[in-house]
């Protein structure tokens, strides 16, 4: 694995292609980025796998909300991991918590077995876990490759102190992937202040729908969300972030 990684979080084939062409080192593929990301469809994964020669880690999260799952939800997660492995995913992005906020070790062991041969990222369930250092050590024992985290704050800059402490505690045993509001400026600031070399971003922009006819008074989801706005990765944002990351590398 490269020591310096820019991971683009994408929820469509269009965004994946844009991110790859702009220089992203890796994709985290999901669906429903507007609600924090859930498991993508088989169709979008296989299409991106065919058209993008980039490492793909797939988010496996069956629903919006917390990370404490019913038995049925857990089985869905396990089966999705097995299916994405069969289809050629390079890794999965997963996480299960207990009601007390600790990592559910027994369930995570089962998911790690299902993911055997793939890299595993512990997603931002980490950011709502009760004890980040205990969770980090549990992740290391499980053989997890990467922790995706904003430092348990709403952005990685606000969580920078914890990110610094996590990077020190990791001691090279597990990668700390900084997330939350990441852009070129944030990479420059965070990279200079902490030993962070891996960043996760969506680089999204809001586009107007191509629909000319627009029906008012009909919402497919939350009334606060417009049906005529589309989120898509902005190539320039990825390019600028990649340049900022390269500037952090030792000359």
How far the N terminus sits from the C terminus, by CA atoms, comes to 19 Å
Mean of pLDDT: 94
Q: Tell me, briefly, the overall form.
A: globular
Helix content: 25-40%
Reported by name, the CATH topology is TIM Barrel
> Tally the helices: what do you get?
8
Q: Please report the first level of CATH classification, the CATH class.
A: Alpha Beta
- CATH level 4 superfamily: Copper homeostasis (CutC) domain
Question: How many domain units?
Answer: 1
By CATH, the architecture is named Alpha-Beta Barrel
Task: Give start-end ranges of low-pLDDT stretches.
Answer: none
DSSP strand count: 10
- Strand % is 15-25%
* Biggest beta-sheet profile: 8 strands, parallel
Q: Structural class of the helix and strand makeup?
A: alpha/beta
Q: Supply Rg.
A: 18 Å
Order of helices and strands: EHEHEHEHEHEHEHEEEH
Strands of the largest sheet, in order across it?
7-6-5-4-3-2-1-8
SSE blueprint and pairings:
Elements: E1 5-10, H1 13-22, E2 26-29, H2 42-51, E3 55-59, H3 71-86, E4 91-94, H4 105-114, E5 119-122, H5 132-142, E6 146-149, H6 160-170, E7 175-178, H7 184-193, E8 198-201, E9 204-208, E10 229-233, H8 235-248
Parallel strand pairs: 1-2, 1-8, 2-3, 3-4, 4-5, 5-6, 6-7
Antiparallel strand pairs: 9-10
């Amino acid at each position: 694995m490269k020591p310096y990684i820019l991971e683009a979080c994408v929820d469509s084939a269009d965004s994946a292609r844009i991110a790859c062409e702009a220089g992203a080192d890796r994709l985290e593929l999901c669906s429903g980025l507007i609600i924090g990301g859930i498991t993508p469809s088989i169709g979008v994964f296989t299409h991106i796998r065919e058209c993008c020669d980039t490492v793909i880690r797939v988010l496996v999260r069956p629903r919006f909300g917390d990370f404490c799952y019913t038995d049925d939800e857990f089985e869905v997660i396990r089966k999705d991991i097995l299916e994405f492995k069969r289809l050629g995913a390079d890794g999965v992005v997963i996480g299960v918590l207990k009601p007390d906020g600790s990592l559910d070790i027994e369930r995570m062991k089962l998911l790690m077995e299902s993911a055997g041969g793939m890299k595993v990222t512990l997603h931002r369930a980490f950011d709502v876990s009760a004890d980040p250092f205990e969770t980090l050590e549990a992740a290391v024992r499980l053989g997890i490759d990467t922790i995706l985290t904003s430092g348990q704050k709403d952005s990685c800059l606000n969580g920078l102190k914890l990110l610094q402490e996590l990077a020190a505690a990791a001691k090279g045993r597990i990668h700390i992937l900084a997330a939350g509001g990441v852009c070129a400026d944030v990479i420059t600031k965070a990279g200079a202040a902490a030993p962070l070399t891996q960043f996760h971003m969506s680089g999204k922009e809001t586009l107007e729908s191509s629909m000319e006819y627009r029906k008012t008074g009909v919402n497919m989801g939350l009334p606060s969300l417009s049906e005529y706005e589309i989120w898509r990765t902005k190539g320039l944002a990825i390019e600028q972030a990649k340049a900022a990351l390269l500037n952090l590398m030792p000359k």
